[in-house]
């Protein structure tokens, strides 16, 4: 007859069930990969610069974002008591760390092709390292435990989007038909496959460490309400940044006249005043509108250059009507007297007499 208590039997049964679950559970493990970017061009989707840079925003956001995922999960790992979830969290952290490294290599490749992203990524680093860092920006108003739970909810919200993007890129046949670069597709689809693989880990982590009841659900809603618009804003901003700094469009962005404030040289000839004479079609250099060539280039609207009249020479009249008229400034009376003395060799034009007349002074000009 067994002498074990019912509680001991239940505890032993739970331990046996956990061991069996660990043996049968699908293991999430990081995969060590490497990519050769030497033959990947800046236009890795041929003739599609907008689509290329919309996808390139991933490389701007993910290095800092996925490093932050690892930091947050490392803070919450001591709170995990389920061995199955603990194993999944460790695999999740390893995969995200590898993603961050590989996307950072893409940023180095873009910089080597004269597309510097440091002016954008510094704001992304500030967002994840300072605003969402270990120390709450609200100070004592939010406890350390509550701040950790909120950040876990933000990670779970972001992982919802990355899982959808991963599923999309795995089935995106349009990228193959467009002739996209094979190395870039390998990176995106490897990343997408692992995002689909660990799509539920962040949610399970939050459910395990995020408390219970209505506060846990309300925190999830608040995290998604913050995450969705911020991600949309960063994506639009990042796409515009990449298109604006793409060196292939430097001819279209060139200004006439002297170099700009950033020291960029003048790329096309032009005058300092009046209309710019740069080409309307950057691909073929044509100045006609629409472009007569069959290059398929997009015509660019001409802009009026800034007037270069110095303010010390030109002064404006009071505004009369819709247009501003310009005239030369008249010299002041003091300037006229000074010019008169120069013409007289430094002597006064009144012969040394004051305003009221009187005897001529020494050295006065004879009349």
Automatic annotation (TrEMBL):
Bias (Low complexity): 253-278
Start-end of Basic and acidic residues biased regions: 335-353
Region (Disordered): 253-367
Bias-annotated ranges (Basic residues): 316-328
Membrane-spanning ranges: 221-243
Keywords, comma-separated and alphabetical: Membrane, Transmembrane, Transmembrane helix
Matches recorded under InterPro entries: UCP07580
UniProt protein name: Metal-dependent hydrolase
Taxonomic lineage: Bacteria, Bacillati, Actinomycetota, Actinomycetes, Kitasatosporales
């Amino acid at each position: 007859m067994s002498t074990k208590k019912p509680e001991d039997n239940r505890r032993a049964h739970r331990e046996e069930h956990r061991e069996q679950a660990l043996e049968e559970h699908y293991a999430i493990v990081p995969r060590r990969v490497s990519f050769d970017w030497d033959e990947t061009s800046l236009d890795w989707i041929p003739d599609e610069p907008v689509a290329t840079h919309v996808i390139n925003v991933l490389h701007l956001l993910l290095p800092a974002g996925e490093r932050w995922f690892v930091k947050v999960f490392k803070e919450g790992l001591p709170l995990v008591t389920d061995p199955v979830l603990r194993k999944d969290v460790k695999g999740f952290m390893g995969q995200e760390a590898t993603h961050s490294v590989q996307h950072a290599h893409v940023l180095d490749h873009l910089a080597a092709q004269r597309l510097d992203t440091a002016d954008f990524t510094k704001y992304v680093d500030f967002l994840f390292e300072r605003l969402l860092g270990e120390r709450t920006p609200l100070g004592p108003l939010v406890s350390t435990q509550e701040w950790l739970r909120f950040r876990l909810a933000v990670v779970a919200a972001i992982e919802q989007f990355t899982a959808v993007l991963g599923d999309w890129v795995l089935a995106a046949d349009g990228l193959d038909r467009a002739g996209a670069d094979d190395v870039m597709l390998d990176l995106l689809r490897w990343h997408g496959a692992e995002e689909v693989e660990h799509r539920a880990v962040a949610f399970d982590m939050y459910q395990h460490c995020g408390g219970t009841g209505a506060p846990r659900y309300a925190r999830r809603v608040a995290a998604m309400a913050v995450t969705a618009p911020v991600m949309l804003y960063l994506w639009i901003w990042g796409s515009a940044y990449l298109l604006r700094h793409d060196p292939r469009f430097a001819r279209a962005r060139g200004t006439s006249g002297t170099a700009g404030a950033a020291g960029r040289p003048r790329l096309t000839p032009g005058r300092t005043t009046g209309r710019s004479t740069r080409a309307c079609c950057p691909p073929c250099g044509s100045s006609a509108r629409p472009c007569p060539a069959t290059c398929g280039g997009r015509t660019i609207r001409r802009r009026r250059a800034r007037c270069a009249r110095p303010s010390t020479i030109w002064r404006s009249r009071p505004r009369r009507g819709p247009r501003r008229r310009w005239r030369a400034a008249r010299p002041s009376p003091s300037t006229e007297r000074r010019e008169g003395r120069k013409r007289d060799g430094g002597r006064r034009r009144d012969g040394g007499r004051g305003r009221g007349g009187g005897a001529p002074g020494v050295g006065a000009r004879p009349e």
